[in-house]
What we know:
- By secondary structure, this protein is an alpha/beta fold.
- It is built from 11 helices and 13 strands.
- It has helices at 4-11, 54-69, 134-147, 164-168, 208-220, 244-252, 266-281, 302-310, 322-330, 334-337, 342-358; strands at 29-37, 40-49, 74-83, 119-126, 152-156, 176-177, 180-181, 184-186, 189-193, 231-237, 257-262, 286-294, 314-319.
- It has an 8-stranded mixed β-sheet with strand order 8-9-5-10-4-11-12-13, sandwiched between helices.
- α3 packs across α11 (342-358).
Amino acid sequence: MPDRASVLAALDTVIDPRSGQGLAAAGLVQGLVVGPAPEGLRAGFVLEVAAGDTALYAPVRDAAEAALSAMPGMGRVSVVLTAETAPAARPVRRASLSPQAVDQGRPKAPVATDRPAHVRRVLAVASGKGGVGKSTVAVNLAAAFAAKGLSVGLLDADVYGPSLPTMLGMTGKPEYRDGMMEPHFIHGLRAMSVGLLTKAEDAMIWRGPMASQALTQMLTQTRWGMEDAPLDLLVVDLPPGTGDVQLTLVQKTPLDGVVIVSTPQEVALADARRAHTLFRKVDIPTLGLIENMTGPVFGRGGAEAEALQLGITFLGDLPLDAALREGADAGVPVVVSDPDGDIAGRFAGFAAEVAKKLGLQGFQTQP
Length: 367
């Protein structure tokens, strides 16, 4: 079976077009992971290049994937192409992360750069705990914004468990044009997910830096909007928890607000409380709390009481409803498949309240 040294040797057979050296010798193999996979061995790394060079290095990424795939015993290969981002041309209002938000022994985070080009507002959808339906809420909330006349993008930042390809019915790698990735346009949304850059069955065996690089690539190297047609709102579906991906997002772009999703029981609310604390410490407003899966199984009212205690807006609740699950499995959000139904109406209400808080122009308040 190949080991780390043989993987690096294979990558050195792929030539860096800038230096003429092999990729490993040129220092372009970042965050290399070599480990077991069901089919044999798995190898993955980040290919980080200079800003503006992604088009030049797209064939290099493909050649690196081919070189690794050709190794005896190699089962899965993942090469993420990302570029260094140029510093912001103008100052932004978001300050450095406070020391309280930094883990023990970790240096103070840098000042955030600017928001993605031609994007007016950035909204995160977060949860402290997995399995509370955060991605389902993010997809349908984004669709509700789009249904009311806004130009909306949806970024799947849950790099370890990307679900947007399934929930939106997306397939195929994004196209590269002029060094930028073109998001898929589906159900009225511009959407991007790390699930489009890897195989559906792949497990993301990535350390924090690789996950952060993947998020940075999707955030800054996707053509979300254009100068003559800017994106009104980018909705970012965060992974659960309060880790590297959340901190990377805060560092890379000024967030205009966050919506937190929780189920009614205390075990989920405790983690939602931690998520709110993270964003409060980095001066990002929590625009509201949504209670998902309300009903006899998980109970009701816990999120509303928590919102009152935290001094934030309770946006409303969503019942444990089969239509939400069926829409996610079928790749069609229930807001799209049943726009006049009760669930779509609830999401329309959430979107109206958040749009008001964000000061979004063009949001249609009437049906």
